User: Fold this.
Amino acid sequence: MKNARKYQSAVPRLTVNHIAAAMLKSGGKAWRGLAVGVFLSLFLISAMVMSVQGVTQAAKERVAQKLGYEECMLIDYPEMTDVQLRESGRFDQIGHVFVAAKLAEGERYFGWYDDTAATLLNRQVMEGRLPQAAGEIAVDQGLLEYLRTDAAVGDQIALNLTPIDGFAEARTCTLVGILADQPLDVNKWGSFGDRVMHFPSIVAAAEGNGFSSGRLAVHRVMTLARGVSMGSVMKNNWEQYGECMFCIDELGNLAHWYSGIDGITAYLNTTTLLVILLGLSLVLSAGVGVAQAMESQLARRLEEIGMLRAVGATRRQIRRIFGRQTWLLALGLAPFSVALGCGFAWGLSRAFPGTVAFRPTWGVLAPMLALSILCVWLSSSLPLRRAARVMPMSVIRDTRLLRKAKRVKGREAFRPALLLLERLREGANGVGYEIHNEDGFNWFQPTFSDGDAAGRFLTEGDVSQLRALPHVKDVVTRRTLSVNLLMDEVTDYLTLSNEYLAEDADWTWMGWAEENDAYRARASLVQEYLGTDKTLAQLSLRAMAMTREMVGALEGLVSEGRVDLDALDAGREVLVLAPTVCQMENGEGATRTSETNARRYFRNWTMTHRWENDVFHAGDTLDMVQLMGRSPEELLDDYIAYSGLDAAPEDFMAWIESCQRRDVSAKIGAVLKEGPSEYMDPLGLPIGTECCLITTEKGMRAMGLYPRTMDYVAMYLDGAVDEETGTYLSGRVNAIAARAESVYVYDGVAADRRRREQLTQTTLAFAAMALMFFAVTVGLVSGNASRRIRADQRMIGTLRAVGADERVLLKCYGSQIGVGLAAGLLTALALALVLFALPSGLPMGARALSVGAMVALAGLCLAFCVLALRVSLRETMGKSIVENIREL
Amino acid sequence: MDEIIRCEGLQKVYQMGENKVYALRGVTTAFEKGGFTAVTGPSGSGKSTLLHLLSGLDRPTAGKVFYQGADLYQYGDNQLSVLRRRRFGFVFQNYNLVKELTGMENILLPVMLDNRKPDRRYLDQVIELLRIGDRVNHLPGAMSGGQQQRVSIARALANKPAVLFADEPTGNLDMKTGREVLSLMQRTSRELGITLILVTHDLNVAEQAERVLYIEDGQIEKDL
Assistant:
């Protein structure tokens, strides 16, 4: 009884945790591999989640900075009440923007916000403060440019205001603050019927600023209710919200048109797909790492597993005992790996401020931990299941281990990572700015004159100021004129640009059947006025201040003839852009588009008709007539009063007679085909189905055509500029652009910066993946080699007994590793090439990181694998030959 | 005769490359409850294979094993595991103790796996019979071979098995220790009413058994 008494006081309570902890405690080096695997996977997942969250958060903050926190806007639509909006369940917060009056000088508005709207719109005060009392105002920075005044905070400003649908009033207000400009997106839409589409550029206090006449236009800025998507709101746009609903997408763009949403959704889907692919490959790599480490660990413990099975442990109990060890490791390592992951994200946010934000919240940390746990659980469960499934004697005998070790040699789990590694893109197309007039050429209202005024755009003086900015290499301007071609014959191709000319034109789908007749009637009147029997076909004429480089670029589009700059400048020749047009159908609908766009965007559609240019040929002479109003300032009013479709024939005729008439002739120097948008856009050329004439600024003047105001200015820089210069240039260009109405500014410098940031992000992501690929590959191959060596101990002992040295054995295993790696690399390269061959690649993955880098990486992997192999082999060879042979 | 285990036409074939190796060629026999049977024969004769198949540690290529009339290999994996831990005990030649657990924890393993509380009185008895009370709080690494094997026997007996299988239990021990372990195992089994089936190629060990099965080339050559 003496012995029994000794232990009685120490009967332990044996649990799975106890066994797992004991194994971990005494395992030492044996568990290091699994610990590293678990640590790496937890770190990678936390780093990935934190970085993705950081990038997303930074994007959100950029959008909030630009447009505020609202997610959609209902513009001046009193038909829908707040109650109705709330009852729809689509919206959460609703703020109100009150637009009270319009500035006499142009399309700038006076109004105020309620508290919710003020919060949601997040207007940035650059100087001073927001108005708090009647008579105080804060204005957009650009408004001062627009008014061409140098008023400062504290000054009195006299305003001539016309209340909406009311009578003009003069007011003198105190300027108390200057606000950062509202993004042009908000104000680029013109009026829509009687509705006011603008937001106030002159912000007053909510109280005491009413007008004695007129009405208040009320815009509502809203956030979406939980679970409601922008797409679902926009689908109901036309029916329910009177086309007055705008949404702000994740990129900070204002989306109104249905198709716009589709495009954004497609873009976001692709980006999301890329992020998901990246994330999945990282998680997969991390999972493979854990699975490998687990499998390697279990291979060492197979005898114990067999013994436990022999004493009655079920498969589930085996999984619990050994799985628990992974959990304990994960729990112990989680704080460090998560902290390191957070540190990584913090480092990124410091390295790329504005692009990556560091905002750790429980909302991110909790899913991150859940994802980590899921990854560890999933990746460890497979090896555990496999290990628990074997028969006890099989593992005790180790015969299964032998067979298993021979089976695992050629596995490659890194293929997806290698594949994505290939999908890296570089470079930006060019650097510069473009300023467009959104009202430049309204082809929805073709008239037979140059009467559609372009509104207030930049002056020659403004262009000179742009030209004087530092680093500006060239400033290219464009004017869009309307000219009437006098044609003997009208083919189908020409009716694409002048649909009213087609006898069987069916515009009823746009509700324009009557307008079509009206155009024809007016065409007869113009023909009568001009005294010609020829048919009038209206085309736009792009007059560009063309540089030699642009001429060179245009030559890439020539399908017939040649581009002669001198002939263009002399007004002897013009160019004709004549795209091939395709009718595309997909069973649900039909659309017309250019052949380039059809190939690019309508690949799954069927082409039912194709129109090729059969009108314009190089060398032909074009007879043109331009009709223009008396002066630009009076043009708009004239146009509405006399040239509108509702105008009486005699009024219209009187108006035509009041216009100046220019008759010109020019030969077609070259016929141009269409190009992709990235080629056409920088040249200021239209994309799509529009056929147009092109000449130079000098040519336009030489021909004697009336020069309309500019509608497009492109500014090219002499190269990439640093961030500080870029910020200065962007500020100046936007300030100058603010002097015009309805402009859209394309900031190429900012876009280039964003592209470079994206490139950096992608490079970082791929570098992280490459690192992971490297770690996984080395772990995978060396783990397998180590297991094989262990299983082959008897063979190694035998070979040693007959005189094989380390070199011979190393060669024996090394060649297998080399073949495996080479096969993996070739397969990955082949798959990557197949992916590149796909016409629509991922936006970020246009070009390979480089084959050289991949080969270098594979070489590095090989070197490390051989090193790991050598270590394993030395460990085995450290034992005596007899021990090697006796082992099994 | 009150038989506890019976096997019929037991066959085990290993596939070695293209060749088939017959470890057992249709063995049929039965074991009496509470008896002590020694299975002996030359190396590679199939004696260990017979023990593994009788105890449900491996699956036969053909044939059946009945435990108290029930076909062992009709059970699912979990049922077989439960049977092994409740009704069978197994002693290995190389002890197979979990080196990270103390002797006592190793002994308690089958009890823990069965989610039961240890029967202290019974364990006292086993530990006393095996004379390991002063070693059970040590790790296996701190024990001699004989002590480890005695802990291994205690583990096999922890759940009060009906049958104790031992595969060359003295194979790794010196002669004196081996004899001592064997005697302890015999005594314990007898006192606890356990059937003992033991594989050995040591004829001195076999002589102590009540029954000796001599196996050669996968078949029972003699049943003494």
